[in-house]
Design goal:
- There is one protein chain.
- The chain is an alpha/beta fold.
- It has seven helices and 14 strands.
- The strands form three sheets. Strands 1, 4, 5, 6, 8, 9, 10, 11, 12 and 13 form a ten-stranded mixed β-sheet that branches. Strands 2-3 form a two-stranded antiparallel ribbon. A two-stranded antiparallel sheet has the order 7-14.
- β10 and β11 form a beta hairpin.
Length: 252
Amino acid sequence: MKAMVLAAGLGTRLRPLTNDRPKALVEVGGRTLLEITLTRLRDFGIHDVIINVHHYADMVMDHVKAAGNFGMHIEFSREDVLLDTGGGLKKAAWFLSGNSDEDPFILHNVDVISTIDLQRMVEVHKKGEALATLAVQKRKTSRYLLFDEHALLCGRRLVKEEKTEIARPSQHLSELAFSGIHVISPRIFPLLTEEGIFSIIPAYLRLAAQGEKIQAFRADEYYWRDLGKPESVKRTAEDMKEKGLLGRADPH
């Protein structure tokens, strides 16, 4: 099984922590976000990973090399222009589509720390024969995804923009917050007709409207934190220390 780590962003919300480094190398409890993400993927048995890079790209690559690739096979997808989540994923298709259509991969934001059970998520994805499975929680956010009673993606609601988009009409819609972790089947690549810079969520909505199965994985029971702001980094470090969620440092 393979995975992609989204690490190309500028990390503007994390300033001043990202004034001299990419967000992937911001430390939480003495370990970089990238190390935490990669070692967690490795603990789930994933050894083939591609990381997209842009901001301080060489610094990220040097960090991985110095750590002996964290005992994994790691490739990099360098983006001269930020391609957003969808564009970045599509650029890495050469690496991720090597498996059969039945063998999914994980797409994981580098600035997300959680205890979400990736193995269980993959099992739910396979059982549901979904195109993509998204980890979601019942919590407040500025951007809600809308799912029907069968946990299928139907639309989204943008709070600040006061805008609701419906891709698949349904009488019963639940508003859930996306957690930045996807399980995706490689057969998505021929379906991504978007080009250049694009977000994956509008692509999901388009595909849902066409009858593709984009489903929810309820992750309410798990710890989750988005490391979007400096104060969240401090809070997460405290959580990790108190709850022992961070695990051991990588030996490499």
